[in-house]
Amino acid sequence: NAGVTQTPKFRILKIGQSMTLQCAQDMNHNYMYWYRQDPGMGLKLIYYSVGAGITDKGEVPNGYNVSRSTTEDFPLRLELAAPSQTSVYFCASSPTGKRGYTFGSGTRLTVV
Amino acid sequence: AQTVTQSQPEMSVQEAETVTLSCTYDTSESDYYLFWYKQPPSRQMILVIRQEAYKQQNATENRFSVNFQKAAKSFSLKISDSQLGDAAMYFCAYRIATTSGTYKYIFGTGTRLKVLA
Fold first, then answer.
1. Residue B67: is it exposed, middle or buried by C-beta count within 10 angstroms (0-12/13-18/19+)?
2. Residues of chain A with pLDDT > 70: what percent?
3. Predicted confidence band of residue A98 (pLDDT cuts 50, 70, 90)
C-alpha cells in the first residue's frame, strides 16, 4: 500500500495565485485531515473530513477550501495565495478518530 | 481551551543513554488519547506510541515508553538505549472530541532531539 500520498512535494507561488494540494490514501480510511506546520511550531488543523461528502473547519481554515467527493481523495485549495500561507502542509488519515494518524510526506509551499 | 505544552525546545542525549521528553496538557475530559509522533529530517510524521487515558498501565513500544500521570496531566516519553536514528523532532498530541461528535488532534510545538555519537 502507498499509504497517504501528497503532491506536489514543493511549490513556489506568487501572491494572488491559486493552487490545489492533492492528497490521496489507499487504506479506505474515513477520516482525513489537513494540517500546516510553520517553522518552530506544532501542527495546526486547517480542515478535516469524516467521510465522503462531509468536511469541517479546523483551527485555521481562512484562505483555504476543501472537498471530499471520494473516500480516497481530500484536496486542499488555496484561492488567493498570501505570504502568510508559506508553510509545510501535511495531509493525514485515520480509520477512526481513536487511532493515530498516517501522515503524508508533506508539501513545502512558499508564497512570494 | 485544550492545550498541549512541550517545554523543552531542544534536548541532547549521548548514544546508548536514556532521555525523557516532557509533555503536559490541559483538558476537562476524563476519557481521551495521547500520542507521541516523531518527525525525522525526511519530514515524515511517524506515530511512536499511544496511551489511552483510562488505562493505568504506561504504554511501551520497544525502547519507547511513557510516564502517564493523569492527575498531573503529564505525558512524558522515555527513550532508552538512544540510537542515532532517534534524532528527530518529537511532537506530543492530544485527541479531543469535536462538537460534531468526531475527533481531532492538538499538537505541541515539538522537542528537537539530538543524539550524540
1. middle
2. 96
3. low
